[in-house]
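lol forgot to send this yesterday, sorry. struct tokens for the thing we talked abt
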């Protein structure tokens, strides 16, 4: 039996999707915490009783108005963000994905803006954890891990 006191408060799970088109990756200028004002891949919190892959697809739809097909997992990443008296531990599950059909992304109320970025030519204001994800995508790491989604 797992006891409640064995869990730490302040741990959050985030589902994210690196959407690639050629050499470019789709970034959004985030409107919400913890990365408000930074350029990130589409992402958001996993809700109670929601799978991580369902959360990833939902977040892309909410932030960019498009449906995505998840093609694999890039990796699982940790980020520690100081919010108040103690840090919050974010566990980020990063998927590799592609937009279904001929849909085109558009910013919604959850994203300030979006851009297709060639990560080999430098990055805008991107948190270090997102830089690590983008580096792994560029290396092709996400294509090595296949899971049933």
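and heres what i got for the seq, position by position
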């Amino acid at each position: 039996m797992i006891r409640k006191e064995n869990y730490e408060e302040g741990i959050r799970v985030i589902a994210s999707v690196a959407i690639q088109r050629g050499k470019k990756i789709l970034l959004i200028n985030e409107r919400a915490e913890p990365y408000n004002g930074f350029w990130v891949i589409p992402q958001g919190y996993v809700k109670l009783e929601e799978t991580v892959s369902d959360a990833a697809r939902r977040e892309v739809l909410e932030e960019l108005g498009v449906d995505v097909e998840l093609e694999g997992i890039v990796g699982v990443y940790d980020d520690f963000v100081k919010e108040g008296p103690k840090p919050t531990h974010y566990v980020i599950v990063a998927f590799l994905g592609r937009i279904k059909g001929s849909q085109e992304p558009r910013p919604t109320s959850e994203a300030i803006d979006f851009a297709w970025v060639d990560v080999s030519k430098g990055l805008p204001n991107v948190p270090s954890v997102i830089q690590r994800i983008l580096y792994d995508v560029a290396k092709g790491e996400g294509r090595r891990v296949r899971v049933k989604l």
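The helical segments are 52-64, 128-139. anyway ping me if u want another try
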